[in-house]
Structure prediction request, 304 residues.
Amino acid sequence: MANSAGNPLSQTGAISPVINVPRYSESRRILRVFFGRKLAVIGLAFIILEILVAIFAPLIAPYDPIKTDLESRLLQPSREHLLGTDSAGRDLFSRVIYGARTSLIIGISAVSISTLIGMTMGICAGFFGSWVYTVIMRFTDALMTFPNLILVLLISGLVGGGMKIVIFALAVGGIAGKCRLMCAQTLTIKQNDYVLAARAMGMGNVRMLLTQILPNAFPPLLVVITMQLGTVILGEAALSFLGVGILPPTPAWGRMVNEGYRFLLTNPLLSIAPGLAIMLVVFGFNMAGDGLRDAIDPRLRGAF
Prediction:
């Protein structure tokens, strides 16, 4: 029963209150939870800062990062050189700025390659099963027998240094984890009713993989990608520190730490400045990955 204005009435004739429950789309809900995590927002700010620094490095850096000036070597911080100069007379601030570009290029390239390969292998193993599953899983088992850093050092040591080799080595080291994750997700998803219904309607394997399996299996992988970007940047720094990574004179944070540790007592900024840059970037990706994981996983959305 309703009155002339269309308001619902209770049995006693009183107007019943109408409660409007706010509705959120899944994307808005994920963003709301993510930006509710302060550490995740701080981590995202560090990531954005690194991206901007890498893009606008030629405008920010006051000097050529690879130009040497032996007459200006090992200068202390001043107005002309904000962080001083290294043992070859190169401006340290400019090299730290350009080092952000190097680390970002290597991180994005290596993670993209490992994601494409690992995701494809994992989905195929979980979806087709049988001998495909056996071959792919035994291959990933072989990769996982080597610790990641040891595997990367082995590849870099055998082939040599350079940016392309570092990207290849770090990409190979990240394939196994992504492959196993996507395989486990696919094994679970392909048993759902909507996948079985799509199969009963005659949907082809390729279309089913692209429209039913991949969109539902990708969110957990996105969290791994975000967190692994920091791991890859740290791995590149470790390789460069050990002398098998980026070759000089290309600015690389790890090599800069290696070159500066001999002058820790006289000019500590030579190691501290690039080391602090590595710490902030890795912290940013880890915190953003944690926030993204909490936002995507429904079981963690209520926990701070």
Summary: Residues 99 and 252 are 5 Å apart (CA to CA). The domain at 36-63+80-300 is CATH 1.10.3720.10 (MetI-like fold). Residues 205-242 form the longest helix (38 residues). The chain has one domain: 36-63+80-300.
